[in-house]
Amino acid sequence: MTDAVNSYPGERLGYPEAGPGSIARVGRRIGALAIDWAAAVVISIAFFQYDALATLLVFIVVQIVFIPTIGGSPGHRIVGMRLVLQNGAWVGLWRPIVRTLLLALVIPAVIWDQDQRGLHDKAVATVLIRA
């Protein structure tokens, strides 16, 4: 028997089960990550002879710049997601920095809670939702 309080990701946080405003699922997240990483690789190839550190730094800068300005990274927006605070408000300026540094460490991003939020999102009280 399923727990009525937590029958789908995001329910305990007050998000709908499906559609706009629902918790973004794994497929979209992986797609967004692939788009953002591919963009970082292209920029790294074009300007930094495909240096691994440059690729990572480009990825980090893209995340930090675009999350507070357009509500998500280019990959997030292309696949129909946006990043918000748990209460739905704007993420501000410091949260994208901390979130992205944790994302770059990888491990926090692959440990999820029952609402499919990675530790990098939990640490800064953000949620990736469908736009």
Explained architecture:
This protein is mainly alpha-helical. The chain is built from six helices and two strands. It has helices at 26-48, 52-70, 74-78, 94-104, 107-110, 119-123, and strands at residues 81-85, 126-130. Strands 1-2 form a two-stranded antiparallel sheet. The longest helix is centred in the first third of the chain and has 23 residues, at 26-48. It is elongated, with a radius of gyration of 15 Å.
Topology:
Elements: H1 26-48, H2 52-70, H3 74-78, E1 81-85, H4 94-104, H5 107-110, H6 119-123, E2 126-130
Antiparallel strand pairs: 1-2
How many individual β-strands? Answer: 2
Measure the end-to-end span: 31 Å
Instruction: For the largest sheet, list the strands in their spatial order.
Output: 1-2
Oligomer: single chain
**Rg from Cα:** 15 Å
Overall pLDDT confidence: 94
- Spans of at least 5 consecutive residues whose pLDDT stays below 50 are none
> Main beta sheet: strand number and arrangement?
2 strands, antiparallel
Describe the structure using short key phrases.
131 residues; mainly alpha; 51% helix; elongated
Question: Quick recap of the structure?
Answer:
This protein is mainly alpha-helical. Helix content is 51%, strand content 8%. It has a two-stranded antiparallel ribbon with strand order 1-2.
